[in-house]
Amino acid sequence: MSIPFNRPYLVGRELDNIAQAHTNGQLSGDGVFTRHCHTWLEQRIGTRKALLTHSCTAALEMAAILLDLQPGDEVIMPSFTFVSTANAFVLRGAVPVFVDIRPDTLNIDETLIESAITAHTRAICVVHYAGVACEMDTIMAIAARHGLKVVEDAAQAIFSSYKGRALGSIGDLAALSFHETKNVIAGEGGALLVNDPAMTERAEVIREKGTNRSKFFRGHVDKYTWVDIGSSYLPSELIAAFLAAQLEDADTITARRLAIWDHYHAWAAPLEARGLLRRPIIPPDCRHNAHMYHLLLNDLSTRTRFIESMKAEGIGVVFHYIPLHSSPAGRRYARTHGALQHTDAVSDRLVRLPMWVGLEPHQDHVMRIASDFLSGL
Ligand SMILES: *Cc1c(COP(=O)(O)O)cnc(C)c1O
């Protein structure tokens, strides 16, 4: 039996919605389904403005434009993240400054941020790894003290919360992903969440190729013209139609993922007690969304053998990330602040187990095969 690492889940109404978009007579962006998704996200997450984009990468690029970053400006962020977190800012000529992660949540270590601030620092970009919140109270206080903006890379964090507040609603800007490997999907897709009211209007302009098209359609201006820099960041109505179906069933998706996560967590407890691995750690202030279940094995060679032995049984388990500070582009465009010892260590030891809605009947098999390997260590 072959069990993939990820399998995109359909709630069932996606294709009907796509047909409906065609019936509605608009396939380009910002139609009925797009507006529905915007309102849904605004109400659910408690953000001032939600704007669908064609990816989380695009939303991060919009954030970098909105922050008016100039060449040489610095953005503090973790190195243990997906490339887009850094690349979006590098496209503006800004310099990512990497600080280490906390060994428990694998999120940016908030105690290291302040010493990384220089005269060039403009923003902090946090990543809520595995949908577990960064220490946002501390981070927002540092930003306020130093006049910095905060961007939440909430690609993995839809419907997670920190002290009762939805992730994506705390920073000045946030980015969600609806890539097929995330919890709620549209194939490729994302959203920019704008919490700072001073940036909402410009966000619409940047997303619409630098034009005031949105204002024109609301009847606020009588000419539609080029007013600022921008690009085409909006997705087609087909994507929004697909996503609208997913959002309707979002709570079921989260609940089913959480049940799978809890099942893994209970299974891994005795293995952790035997010193064979470390389980994910969720701080008491954080409610997570079961985006992923990862294990920290004891060293790189154990992880390599684990992945091979699972693969031999047809089970997809994967690792990430190659730390950005040791990647070719990271070396060229970014710099580090201090030693990144936890980033390096975790990158060698972390492995992700299959996690998708529909895995339930196969999960015991995955755990049995994993136990066979781990018990032999
Ligand atoms: C998936 C992911 C992204 C990129 O999302 P896309 O929608 O594929 O552009 C960015 N940052 C993090 C942390 C991610 O996990």
Automatic annotation (TrEMBL):
<dbReference type="Pfam" id="PF01041">
    <property type="entry name" value="DegT_DnrJ_EryC1"/>
</dbReference>
<keyword id="KW-0032">Aminotransferase</keyword>
<comment type="similarity">
    <text>Belongs to the DegT/DnrJ/EryC1 family.</text>
</comment>
<dbReference type="InterPro" id="IPR015421">
    <property type="entry name" value="PyrdxlP-dep_Trfase_major"/>
</dbReference>
<dbReference type="InterPro" id="IPR015424">
    <property type="entry name" value="PyrdxlP-dep_Trfase"/>
</dbReference>
<dbReference type="GO" id="GO:0019180">
    <property type="term" value="F:dTDP-4-amino-4,6-dideoxygalactose transaminase activity"/>
</dbReference>
<dbReference type="InterPro" id="IPR000653">
    <property type="entry name" value="DegT/StrS_aminotransferase"/>
</dbReference>
<keyword id="KW-0808">Transferase</keyword>
<protein>
    <submittedName>
        <fullName>dTDP-4-amino-4,6-dideoxygalactose transaminase</fullName>
        <ecNumber>2.6.1.59</ecNumber>
    </submittedName>
</protein>
<keyword id="KW-0663">Pyridoxal phosphate</keyword>
<dbReference type="InterPro" id="IPR012749">
    <property type="entry name" value="WecE-like"/>
</dbReference>
